Amino acid sequence: MAxxxxxxxxxxxxxxHEGDLTIDNLLKLxxxxxxxxxxxxxxxxxxxFDNRSAWQYKYITDYNLFLSAMEIGxxxxxxxxxxxxxxxxxxxxxxxxxxxxxxIDVAQNGKAVFNAKxxxxxxxxxxGIHWLPCIKNGLDSKTLLIEFMDFTMMLMENxxxxxxxxxxxxxxxxxxxxxxxxRPIVMKAKEKSIAIEINSHNYPDPDVQFIRLCIDExxxxxxxxxxxxxxxxxxxxxQKRILSEAGINDNMIDDVLFTHDNKN
Length: 264
Fold this sequence. Notes:
The chain has helices at residues 23-33, 51-56, 58-61, 64-90, 141-155, 168-172, 182-192, 208-217, 237-245, 253-256; strands at residues 5-9, 37-40, 97-104, 124-127, 162-163, 195-199, 221-224. The protein is an alpha/beta fold. The chain has a seven-stranded parallel β-sheet with strand order 1-2-3-4-5-6-7. Strand 6, helix 8 and strand 7 (221-224) form a beta-alpha-beta unit. The longest helix has 27 residues, at 64-90. It is globular and about 50 Å long. The two termini are 17 Å apart.
């Protein structure tokens, strides 16, 4: 069962894609790599906002901007869901399976930047912290720590299956990952039956200490490349290495990894 699915993959729908990440190309490559399938998890807010607005993140602090975008955005999101579903309808059973997913952010009011009416249509719902209000005001490590924990805990209240790149925002801002954030996140994940992603895009995340605590507490680990470029797709070498460093051997692997079939 291990390493048969990539649970975090972006396509040309996401503004952050690099190269020709069409579903057709990904399906072909998945078959070549021997994957049984993968989750298409494009950013939900990219379907509600134009490129410039999406990267400004104003809807994080002003949720009304998302509410105003819902009428047009919902239609785009439904087209996105139908696109993936139609691929599966026409797909030969011997071909890799497409899982329907999306990646969401959380706003300052604790609500997901996502229309919850679509939750039941998803095989996988990923949540990630990509931006915090303090970033626009100049980085202060203490403020970043407080906001990061506040937003992460709020995000995990939004019925997500997987917490993506749990501490990447520190690496992305050239900061050490505070050790005090690890246990609260792992225990919240345990409480909410959320898997912690081992993410290999740009900043391999999380570290071995984080992963070992997940294993000790029985929190599932999700394998996601967070594919933004074709070379990343289905390359699990980083995940295999860090799991080995955490003391996980081949006989243990199936017991610690998340699969869409073992969601609680």
